[in-house]
Structure formats: structure tokens, C-alpha cells
Design a protein that fits this description.
By secondary structure, this protein is an all-alpha fold. It has helices spanning about 10-35, 50-75, 80-105, 115-130, 140-160, 160-185, 200-220, 230-240, 245-250, 255-280, 285-295, 300-310, 315-340, 345-360.
Length: about 350
């Protein structure tokens, strides 16, 4: 290390950063272990198992700061056996607790965890099969960023450049904040094991034939799909079946529960927009307000779902609807004029429509 070659001011600044990057994980670990209340997202109950693994990872990070500081004070020999032992302990303990934390984010212990990419993809499919609202439930981005940060920590053990060492300590603080936010905003999602039994083929066929009618009667008609955070299990209870049969029904239709609910919500938004547009008479409409009434808490989630269902962004679709309404109004006015003048016929109507379709919208 080049610490000994630094000026007194640089050394003070470095050890200040070193102390902060060791104290912050310790405080975060104590918060996760001892604080029963979620101070970051009060309305969310995060998985207890995830909280404990993350606290263990933070605790190991703090211990690593302590023993490396002791090494710097008493040994400082990078070729010694002590350095080798500390480096191995650092990598092993950080890897074990970090892996346990990432796997705890997937929440379902029955899910295969290797290879990791397949496990994350399966987790994504599981979300789509069981949840209508996916805000703060996806974990792949957080896991990818965390893996990159961990790679930097491994390289930190071998680092000799002070610039890189400073950078890693700053990244460590960012990682602690990211993981703390991810843990406290991730709701408990694991499905109880007693709900995962496989039904007999005969019973499944009988239920699947009847489920579509049950959905129309107890989900579509009362607009149950507008309920925030509606899960597959809750919908199954509402229509009088269980989540296994309902999941089999969606699979037989070539769709997922998430896609089914979002399709109903987008269709409701479209109908709501058209009704509001007709009543507004030229006044601007707030798509965010209508999206919230359509069952979405997050406008970003709504925008993604809308584009997936319609192939257009919300802005483009609204502009197109306004353009169509403008043309329709112009056609109606011209038709009224022709009717009043007694010159109305189908040929002129077709010409009028063609003229408006060629006219750019302003």
C-alpha cells in the first residue's frame, strides 16, 4: 500500500473515509437487526431472512475494516502469512454472506439457485405468475450492481494504487445505501408451501373449463382488477378457486397473471380516457390521474405496461386519439353543413373523409 507515502493531510482524510466506510455498515447492520420498524418504507414488511443476511454482510464488512486496520498498525508486510490469512478470510466471509443475501432476495427456498442467471429469470417469471403490481419487486438490477461492487472489493485486496482504494471505499458507502434501500422496499413475497400442491388432472380440467366464467363474474364485472397489489392468491380466493388452478388456466391461455391484469387495466384506462375526453371538451387530461384510477400506483409501471399492450407510448397514443377526435369533429361539422344545404350524399362524405385523413394535424 502507498498509505505511508501520503502527506499528513492525505492520511487524515483517508483514515476518516476508512472509519466512515467501516462505521456505516455497522450502523446499518444494527438497524436491520434491532429496529422492528421499517423506517425507509413504513408500509412494507421486508423478509426477515433477507434482513438477517444483509446485516451479516454489513457486519463482515465492518470486521474487515477492523482487522485490516490492525494489520496496518502491527504488520504492514504484504508478503506475510498474516496478510494471506486476512485476504482469504475477507474473500470467503464476504462471498458467503453476500451470496446468502442475494439468494434471500429471491425469497423462495425451493427455487433452484444455479445457474444464477436462470434463477433470476425464474424469479421474474414467478413474479409475473403471481403479482399484478411489480413495483419494488424486481431484484436483477440491484443484484447486477452489487456483483460489480463485490468484484471491486476483491480487487481491493490486491490493490496498490491509493486512487483505486479511495474509489472502492466511496463505492462501499453507495453499496450500503443501495442494499439498505433494496432490503427495506422489497415486500415479503414467498408463497406458502401448502399452496403449491399439484391438483389431479381430472379436477384441473373441470376447474379450468369454469374459471373463465368465474373471472368474468367476480373479477371483470366488479372491476376487482383495479385493486392495488392484487395477487394471484387473492384473486383465486375472490373467484372461489385456488391459485394452482388459476395459474394453470393462465398458462393454458398462453399468458401470465400479470399480463391478464394489466390487459384489463389498460383497456379500462382507454375507456376511461375516451369518456373523460368526451366530457372535457378540449381541456387537457392528466394521464397520471387516469392511470391511478386504472389500478396503477406507479406511472412508470403503467407506461411500460401500456407500451407492451398497445405498441405505442402513452404520449403518442394520446396524441393520436386527439388527432382522431379533431378529424371526427371536422367531419361532423362539414356533414352538418352539407345536410343543412341539402347537398349531402355518400360520395361527398367519402371525399370529405379522405381529405381530412390527408390533412396534417396541427
Amino acid at each position: 500500500m502507498e498509505i505511508l507515502g501520503q502527506t499528513p493531510v492525505q492520511s487524515i482524510l483517508f483514515f476518516t473515509l476508512y472509519g466512515i466506510s467501516g462505521a456505516v455498515p455497522l450502523l446499518a447492520a444494527l438497524y436491520l437487526l434491532l429496529c422492528p420498524v421499517n423506517a425507509i418504507a413504513p408500509g412494507v414488511t421486508p423478509p426477515v431472512r433477507l434482513r438477517r443476511w444483509t446485516a451479516a454482510f454489513f457486519g463482515v464488512a465492518t470486521l474487515a475494516h477492523v482487522w485490516w486496520l490492525a494489520f496496518y498498525i502491527f504488520c504492514r508486510d504484504l508478503n506475510s502469512f498474516c496478510y494471506l490469512v486476512l485476504a482469504m478470510a475477507d474473500c470467503v466471509l464476504l462471498f458467503v454472506t453476500f451470496a446468502g443475501m442475494l439468494l434471500a432476495m429471491l425469497q423462495d427456498r425451493r427455487r433452484p439457485v444455479w445457474p444464477a442467471v436462470a434463477a433470476i429469470r425464474q424469479y421474474g417469471r414467478w413474479l409475473n405468475d403471481n403479482y399484478a403490481d411489480l413495483e419494488n419487486k424486481r431484484v436483477w438490477l440491484c443484484q447486477a450492481v452489487s456483483l460489480v461492487c463485490m468484484l471491486l472489493f476483491v480487487l481491493y485486496v490486491l490493490a496498490t494504487s491509493m486512487v483505486f482504494i479511495w474509489l472502492v471505499h466511496i463505492i462501499e458507502l453507495v453499496l450500503v445505501g443501495l442494499l439498505l434501500w433494496r432490503v427495506e422496499t422489497l415486500p415479503t413475497l414467498a408463497v406458502p408451501s401448502f399452496l403449491t400442491s399439484t391438483p389431479s388432472p381430472l379436477t384441473s380440467n373441470i376447474d379450468l373449463d369454469h374459471i373463465e366464467q368465474l373471472l368474468k363474474e367476480y373479477c371483470v364485472a366488479p372491476q376487482l382488477y383495479l385493486q392495488h397489489d392484487l395477487t394471484l392468491e387473492e384473486l383465486a380466493q375472490a373467484i372461489g378457486t385456488n391459485r394452482t388452478y388459476l395459474g394453470m388456466y393462465f398458462s393454458s391461455q398462453g399468458t401470465t397473471y400479470n399480463a391478464y391484469i394489466n390487459t384489463l387495466r389498460i383497456n379500462y384506462f382507454i375507456e376511461l380516457f375516451r369518456q373523460a375526453s368526451a366530457a372535457a371538451e378540449g381541456q387537457s387530461l392528466q394521464a397520471k390521474h387516469l392511470a391511478n384510477r386504472s389500478g396503477y400506483r406507479s406511472y412508470r409501471t403503467f407506461s411500460v405496461a401500456f407500451k407492451q399492450r398497445t405498441g405505442q407510448s402513452v404520449t403518442d397514443w394520446i396524441a393520436e386519439q386527439e388527432k382522431s377526435a379533431f378529424y371526427a369533429k371536422q367531419v361532423d361539422e362539414e356533414m352538418d353543413k352539407l345536410w343543412e344545404s341539402g347537398q349531402f350524399d355518400q360520395k361527398k362524405l367519402d371525399e370529405l373523409r379522405g381529405q381530412h385523413l390527408r390533412t396534417p394535424y396541427k
